[in-house]
Design brief:
The complex is a heterodimer of chains A (115) and B (112). With 115 residues, chain A is mainly beta. Chain A is built from no helices and eleven strands. In chain A, a hairpin with a 2-residue loop joins strand 5 and strand 6. Classes of the chains: A mainly beta (115), B mainly beta (112). At the A-B interface, strand 4, strand 5 and strand 9 of A face strand 6, strand 10 and strand 11 of B.
Chain lengths: 115, 112
């Protein structure tokens, strides 16, 4: 079946522009996660949704970052007034349930380059 | 806080060699531990996991044992293949939480 998909796969933005990154989770998956992966580093947690509720946004690095999942399916990560330090791969993952026993399935990521 | 430390640097080895990648962690309580793998051009995939002390996770010939006394979860494979070339990430999920904390990852290159 279809896995987690993300679009666009690559995004180049000029500093100061706003960007929107989309995640389509596996159908029926309740939980959705966003991670940020800088070059040569492991992914860092950004935020977590259970259905449409954003239960944890403690990893968002600044108030320029905003995520939503209005209908409990597709999610969008928005970054306002992008800065060079925002350049990274943004990963989305979904899981059947928020409990520990359910695996997180990752999408291919969106590589954001801020020039 | 919760963190994962992986050994520094890429790992290059010959086909059929023994592979070990070290992973140690810092966490409060009793986290679950994971190894994820990223093959070239693909997304992160769960390789194996262990949810309590002394559990051994295994998959595709890889194994890792949850050692609470040494706070470690080292990954091992007895005989690697070229197809095992990938980046390997150790990760933990704190008890009662679902967010993952990852190590920096190790690039493994297997030479024929």
């Amino acid at each position: 079946g279809a896995g987690v998909s993300q679009s666009p796969r690559y995004k180049v933005a000029k500093r100061g522009q706003d960007v929107a990154l989309r995640c389509d989770p596996i159908s029926g998956h309740v939980s959705l996660f966003w991670y940020q992966q800088a070059l040569g580093q492991g992914p860092e947690f950004l935020t977590y949704f259970q259905n449409e509720a954003q239960l944890d946004k403690s990893g968002l690095p600044s108030d320029r970052f905003f995520a939503e999942r209005p209908e409990g399916s597709v999610s969008t990560l928005k970054i306002q007034r992008t800065q060079q330090e925002d350049s990274a791969v943004y990963l989305c993952a979904s899981s059947l349930d928020g409990q520990l026993s359910y695996e997180q399935y990752f999408g291919p990521g969106t590589r954001l380059t801020v020039t | 806080g919760n963190s994962v430390t992986q050994m520094e640097g890429p790992v290059t080895l010959s086909e059929e060699a023994f592979l070990t990648i070290n992973c140690t962690y810092t966490a409060t309580g009793y986290p679950s531990l994971f190894w994820y793998v990223q093959y070239p051009g693909e997304g992160l995939q769960l390789l194996l996991k262990a949810t309590k002390a002394d559990d051994k996770g295994s998959n595709k010939g890889f194994e890792a044992t949850y050692r609470k006394e040494t706070t470690s979860f080292h990954l091992e494979k007895g005989s690697v293949q070229v197809s095992d070339s990938a980046v390997y990430f150790c990760a933990l999920s704190p008890y009662g939480n679902n967010r993952l904390a990852f190590g920096k990852g190790n690039q493994v290159v297997v030479i024929p």
